[in-house]
Design goal:
The protein has 250 residues and is mainly alpha-helical. It has one domain: Alpha-lytic protease prodomain-like (Up-down Bundle). It is 75% helix and 0% strand. The protein is elongated. The termini are far apart.
Length: 250
C-alpha cells in the first residue's frame, strides 16, 4: 500500500436540511452503525481465532482493532437514539469519544508492528485470515464512504469520524491481506508490520482532525437555534403522534 492518507473529497457547501430530512439521514447513519457493529463483532472473533491458530500477531491485532472500532459504532448508535438525535451536546460528546478511538488504535497498531519487526515472528499461513481480510477490504470502504456522505449532509463530525475509522479498517485489512499473501507466497513476513507503522501515523492525524471536528462540511447546522429541551420536546411529540397513528415517518 503506497498511500499514507485517507482519501477525502473536498467538502462541498452543506445545505441546511429540514428536520424530517435530518431525522431520516440520522436514522440511516444509526442503521449503518448497527451493521458495522455486527460486522466488527464477527470480524474480531474470526480474526482472533485465526490468529491464535496460525500464531499471527497481525491477525490477533486486527481482531482487537475490530473491538476498538466497534466501540466507535456503538457511540454513533447512542448518539442517534431518542432525544439525542436532535441534541448538539450529544453530537459534541460523540465527536470526542470517536476521536479517542483513533488515539487508542494508533499506539496499539504501532506497538504490534514494532514488536513483530523486532521479534521476526514468522506466522503460519492462514487462509481463513486471508478470506476475512479480503471481505473487509470490500465491506469497510462501502460503509465508510456512505457514512461520510451522510455526515456531510447533516453536519455530524462524529459520524464523519466513524466513517474515517471504517476507511482506516479497510487500510488495515488491505495491509493484513498483503502481508498474509506475501508470507504465503514469498515468506515476506516483514511487509505487514511496516505498512502497519504507516497506518498508525495516519490514525494519529485522523484522530486530531476528528477531535477538532475537521473534515466535515458543517457550514450550516440543521439544529441551530434549537435548545436541548426543545429537541427533547420535539422527539416526544413525534413519538406521541406515532403511537396515535397520526404520524407516518417518511
Amino acid at each position: 500500500m503506497s498511500t499514507t492518507a485517507l482519501p477525502m473529497e473536498p467538502p462541498s457547501h452543506a445545505e441546511r436540511v429540514d428536520r424530517e430530512t435530518y431525522r431520516r439521514l440520522a436514522t440511516r447513519a444509526k442503521t449503518l452503525s448497527w451493521a458495522s457493529l455486527a460486522y466488527m463483532t464477527l470480524e474480531g472473533t474470526v480474526a482472533i481465532f485465526a490468529g491464535v491458530l496460525a500464531g499471527s500477531v497481525a491477525l490477533v491485532g486486527f481482531g482487537i482493532d475490530s473491538a476498538i472500532e466497534g466501540f466507535a459504532s456503538a457511540i454513533i448508535v447512542w448518539r442517534f437514539t431518542g432525544a439525542r438525535m436532535f441534541s448538539e451536546a450529544a453530537e459534541q460528546r460523540a465527536q470526542k469519544l470517536v476521536a479517542v478511538q483513533f488515539f487508542l488504535l494508533a499506539p496499539y497498531v504501532g506497538f504490534e508492528s514494532i514488536q513483530a519487526l523486532v521479534e521476526g515472528a514468522r506466522p503460519d499461513v492462514s487462509w481463513l485470515g486471508i478470506a476475512l481480510s479480503a471481505s473487509s477490504v470490500v465491506v469497510m470502504p462501502y460503509l465508510g464512504i456512505v457514512k461520510q456522505g451522510i455526515a456531510d449532509q447533516i453536519g455530524s463530525a462524529a459520524t464523519k469520524g466513524e466513517g474515517r475509522q471504517n476507511m482506516l479498517c479497510a487500510y488495515l485489512a488491505g495491509a493484513l491481506l498483503l502481508g498474509l499473501l506475501a508470507n504465503a507466497a514469498f515468506g515476506a513476513w516483514w511487509l505487514d508490520p511496516i505498512v502497519g507503522l504507516l497506518i498508525a501515523g495516519v490514525a494519529v492525524k485522523e484522530g486530531i482532525e476528528a477531535w477538532n471536528g475537521k473534515g466535515c462540511a458543517c457550514t450550516s447546522d440543521p439544529l441551530a437555534g434549537l435548545s436541548e429541551d426543545d429537541c427533547e420536546n420535539f422527539v416526544l411529540q413525534h413519538r406521541q403522534l406515532s403511537a396515535e397513528g397520526s404520524y407516518k415517518p417518511q
